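REQUEST
  id: r-88c1
  op: predict_structure
  target: histidine kinase
  payload:
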Amino acid sequence: MSLRLKLTFLYSGVLALTMLVFGLLVYFFMEHNLTAEADRSVAGIAEDVVRSTVIVGRFPAPLRQVVIPDVDVFANPNTYIQVVDRSGVVAARSDNLGGQVIPLSEETLREVAKGKGFYETVMSGSQSLRVYNRPLLVDGQVVGVLQVARTMGPAEMALKRLRILLFLGGAVALFLTSTLGWLLAGAALRPIGRITETASAIQQGRDLTRRISYSGPKDEVGRLAGTLNQMLERLHDAYRNLEDAEAAQRRFVSDASHELRTPLTTIKGNVELLKKMGDADPETRNEALNDIAGEVERMSRLVSDLLVLARADASLKLKKEAVALAPLLAEAARRGSVLAGGLTFSAGDFSALGEAEVLGDKDYLMQLLLILIENAVRYTPPGGEVRLEAQAEGDCVEISIIDNGIGIAEKDLPHIFERFYRADKVRFSSGSGLGLAIARWIVEEHGGTIIVKSKEGEGSTFTVHLPLRIL
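RESPONSE
  id: r-88c1
  status: 200
  body:
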């Protein structure tokens, strides 16, 4: 069953129930009013008849003669009057009764004997009569019953017409409103149909750049269209990121294979050389062993870097604690001076940082600093200078590694933090091309940023901003 049909049935059902309840209320209200009007009429006539009725004879003799007024005086041909003594014998009746009598039961006589009047509905042939039974009193004693009856035929005819009117009117109204509800439901659901068609076309065509066109009000359907468009945008971004990730993975595997193949080839060649040569040339053997050791160390560094990046890809969460900046930078400066070799290495005055701390992993922060220092040393020619500086800037610390080396070409700047990326002029250097990628990951894991400013032939400045730990 379609949603449109469900809504139509639901609307029609609620309307039918409402009309049924309303019709019953109208019908019973009308029936009650007609009955109440008949009761008031016969009760009023009964009082007038009592005042005008004459009983001939002395009580307790039976009601031998009762003179009642002519009912026509009340201009109501549907009203009948009858007087019955205590034994149930009709003592008098109105002329319009003819040869008929108003039905009287033993139960009625017993109730009247109690001295109270009451109403009842009785059947006389095929007619329904509303009867008011009023006791006739003489000297405080009940001597008979005065019955004033009114035929309910006109009222029943009116109720019958009302039933027909309610039924036919309700049926017509239900049909018209159901038809209107069907049309309105179709109009309301038409935008959803278009949304479904568009979504199906997107699914079949696998075109995530397509969006649902909706220009209506910002109602439930409008919000649905907006939500679906946002979902499609996220799916498009996720799919694009997945494609980029797959391409990066393929490139990563290719570059890693290439980086590992070179030292393995060197080691294999030297091992074969040692097998052929034996101990014939000790000097050549030592050179081969040194080459093997160097390539093993290079492979060890490469594998270690790959492990760090694999942990980064697996969303590794660093174990962070308070790390004092001044001792960390002093230790990095000491190690940097060893790495500098023939270069001039200098460090700023870190005492100005005082007891400033960052929340992070001490070992990874040291690795970050050494990667940047080693990178500066590697691409600075002999006689050049590398400097490490740090200063507090508001709620963060700014750490800079400055060199006057070969610099970075402007076209290479956007790519230097990519894995295995190396500029053309340094492509044959000893680096693996993973250091800066690891450095950026460490910085981001500590909630910081890293930027680089460089001019080819004049040097580079890597600046790291880390948030200070708030005490």
